[in-house]
Amino acid sequence: MSNLIVLGAQWGDEGKGKIVDLLSEKFDAVARYQGGHNAGHTVFIGDRKFILKLIPSGVLRPGVLAVIGNGVVIDPAALLSEMQGLEEAGINVRSQLKISNRAHVIFPFHRTIEKISEGRDNRVAIGTTSRGIGPCYEDKIARRGIRIADLVERNFEEHYRSLAEDKQLIASAFNISERVDFDEILAQYKQFAEAIRPLACDTAHLLNRMIREGKSVLFEGAQGTMLDIDFGTYPFVTSSSAAAGGACTGTGVPPTHIDGIIGVSKAYITRVGAGPFPSEDTTELGDKIRIAGNEFGSVTGRPRRCGWFDVPLLRYTAEVNGFDSLVITKMDVLDELDEIPVCVAYELDGQRTELMPASTSRVSAIKPVYERLPGWKQSTRGVSRIVDLPLQARKYVDFLESKTGVEIGSVSNGPERNETMFVAGSKLEKLLR
Question: Which of 207, 222, 279, 339 is the most buried (most CB within 10 A)?
């Protein structure tokens, strides 16, 4: 069995959680490698709905090890709450979960600072979830952060006082000192440490040992490539490496152990929050897609901006990730449309281009060039083989594959595990053998 990375090929919310859950039965471990509890992965099992924010989707499979890697930032309160919810649903989380002792810790003052920063009049609003993710990564890069290893040590208070001293200066500068009780936070986090200590370990060593023993690991990305700190529409991005390279730096598993990279993309495209979106549809048709696809954030509940499949964007994310295969999700959302626009190129400065600019202002100036394909006007739900899809639906899949240059190995036509079709003989199918 191969070691695979599964990640988002767009701006997140592509349906990675369902795909990872589906594939995880074939793997020994599922490892999350970046992000925090700002992105939710939604998984449906029968009539039960699970929203996983920090814990890898593989935890829903008995016997599959769920690993939170060093590239993730962890809010202990959010983690323990999520664990409790899963345990109440009958999931034996503690026997399956391991947490990297190198992962960084989010504190309440990270959230406070983020809200203040996002609300400043002279600052471009990124549209963060205000969960302290960005400020925690800032502390990590500035080499003043606190890691799980520090949290569970007996001298945690010493580490904490050093960081709190820095944050008190910021709180005073913004006149918010009365909103941050540093002593109360310390007492609370000492309790969190007791609950987390048995789960913390050197997960890089654990994963590499498993691979040496012939076991297989599925690496689960959060958000999507267009939110990657380097390759996304900066500054309207997340604070971590959501692209494939982040799987190695975020877990400690070297690239030589990775056998395949799978991109996940909707049959259309969405984005949450601010930032350029070339193929966005702001008409009633975009609203129709939002309702049909239930496009509201699983964590925040915010309505997602909806638009049409963007070929140049997908080719760009395929290039920076090296996709071996692509999974197309939510095909069924397009079932009732008379025609389906697909953005096949951009017009910029009067010239046609298929390249994604680096400058956000340039991306904002793009005019999409569309080709319009006929819809299939019938339900794809319940179809279990791609060859049995309506003719125009099959043509749509073939069109996306030919235009992006990436093999489509699977198509999802509903939220349930069994509403997923695999292409016989595809690279994806071979990687899963």
Answer: 222
- Which amino acid, one-letter code, is at 9? A
Q: How far is CA 352 from CA 200, 233, 294, 316, in A?
A: 52, 20, 34, 16
Domain at 104-196: CATH code: 1.10.300.10
- Do 30 and 58 form a contact (C-beta atoms < 8 A)? yes
CATH assignment of 264-431, among 3.30.70.2190, 3.30.930.10, 3.90.170.10, 3.30.70.560: 3.90.170.10
Tokens of 312: 């140049």
Q: Check if 41 is active-site.
A: yes
Which fold does the domain 4-100+200-260 belong to in CATH?
Answer: Adenylosuccinate Synthetase; Chain A, domain 1 (3.40.440)
What does the domain layout of the chain look like in residue ranges?
4-100+200-260, 104-196, 264-431
Which residue among 21, 28, 37, 41 is the active-site one?
41
In 299-396, beta strands by DSSP E = 305-307, 325-329, 339-348, 351-353, 367-374
Q: Residue 80: how many CB atoms within 10 A of its CB?
A: 15
150: number of Cβ within 10 Å: 19
The letter for the amino acid at 294 is N
> pTM, whole model, 2 decimals?
0.94
Q: What angle do CA 323, 32, 332 make, to 5 degrees?
A: 55
Residue 37 annotated in active site? no
φ, ψ of residue 408 to 5 degrees: the values are -95, 110
Per-residue tens of pLDDT for the chain, all 433 residues: 799 999 999 999 999 989 998 999 999 999 999 999 977 767 777 777 788 899 998 899 999 999 999 999 999 999 999 999 999 989 999 999 999 999 999 999 898 877 776 655 455 555 566 789 999 999 999 999 999 999 999 889 998 988 888 887 776 776 665 566 889 999 999 999 999 999 999 999 999 999 999 999 999 999 999 999 999 999 999 999 999 999 999 999 999 999 999 999 999 999 998 999 999 999 999 999 999 999 987 667 789 999 999 999 999 999 999 999 999 999 999 999 999 999 999 999 999 999 999 999 999 999 999 999 999 999 999 999 999 999 999 999 999 999 999 999 999 999 888 899 999 999 999 999 8
